[in-house]
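User: structure tokens for HAD family hydrolase, please.
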Amino acid sequence: MTATRPPTAEPAGERGSLAGLLATTRAVLLDFDGPVCDLFAGTSTAGVAARIKRRARRYWGPLAPEAAACDDSHDILQRLRDMYDAPAPRTRGRRPLVVAERIVTRQESRAVRTARPAPHLDDLVVSLRSLGMRLAVVSNNAEAPIRAYLGKLGIEGEFAGVFGRDPRDARLMKPDPDCVVRALECLSLPASQCLLVGDRVTDLKAARSAGTCFLGYTQDPVRAREMREGGANAVVSSYDPVIEAAGTLRPGPPGSGSLLGQEVPD
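Assistant: Done. Predicted tokens:
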């Protein structure tokens, strides 16, 4: 989740590279929590993880130390999957995995009702679509809450697809590139012509595994440095320089305003 602190200035060379990066991009893949919205507004998900662990103990008994110590709603999905896959004296049923997925999806469905969109998201969507770029969401969140949120904002139609967490296998969450690969297959575009926008190093790792370019979106200077050192094509703390760069690529004056009533190429 993106930290809510004042934006930091991007290096001048990086600002100049954004136009070049966008010029070779035919599709932009946005992570959801952070790049699209502030899903949990800084609220801990430890309570959700604790509920999942209580339910899992009913079926499996004592949890592995890694699972017992986990206090994040997404991480606990992976820790339980690790337990399910690990050798055990008796076979473990899938029921805790199903219950955990259901609990986390409900949590996300509640969160999108009050989630705040990323600043200037609407302008970003207009700018990218006006350049003929296709958009998709690639996320560790469940797909139904993402679609509900895009519909709430009135921009669901601007996205070619939503590729969220595989409810059957938590191992496929980023940094695994599964959701990115599914998006690329749907778009029928080479990975090299797609740009993934993410706010975590796990997003960067997924982008590198899938072969896409990567734009870091974070106001955390430590995370920004990690992204640059990890090979990000660029890192920004707001969408302003991205929108400005997109404006330099349009043949006419930069577009503005809401999406309503605007024509954008497919």
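User: Anything notable?

Assistant: Confidence is low (pLDDT under 50) at residues 1-9, 254-266.
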